[in-house]
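Protein in question passed on here:
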Amino acid sequence: MLRKNPTGHMPVVAETAFIDPTAIICGKVIIEENVFVGPYAVIRADEVNAQGDMEPIIIKRDTNIQDGVVIHSKAGAAVTIGERSSIAHRSIIHGPCEVCDDVFIGFNSVVFSTKIGKGCVIRHNSVVDGLDLPEQFHVPPMTNIGPDFDLNTISKVPPEYSAFSESVVSANHTLVEGYRRIANEL
């Protein structure tokens, strides 16, 4: 469901994107081509800063936002999700936040007030809060990363996780095509 926010902004959704009918997209949200937004996801850009302004939440092309994901932003701060990225089931992305291209964020993870570098893989039940991750970092399951975390204790993304991330993007791109075809049949 597409909704206007209290400041009057409506989402802008590319024709080639698929938004599940149970998802809620509210306010100053831009969804680019071939994006999949799964059941019960909520993407909500409705808070303003002290000056009464807000930045958009942008979901770039070929990205998938899976079931139950919540993307929101504090005080009108920007959120950008890069191209070919996967935000897995029930994760929370809370702005200010930038997730670069080709990133995988695993089930139930929380990302807040950070920049996640290109090609990073954040595994399930992890938290990244207030510390930027450089490109190609692998966050193991159930890892909590905060401002004082030593990034030297985690490794670069192993090739098998990069391949897995690419396969998830491909599978969800197929879902976009399939669900759009079904919607056109009804």
User: Anything to note?
Assistant: The mean pLDDT is 93. The two ends are 17 Å apart (CA to CA).
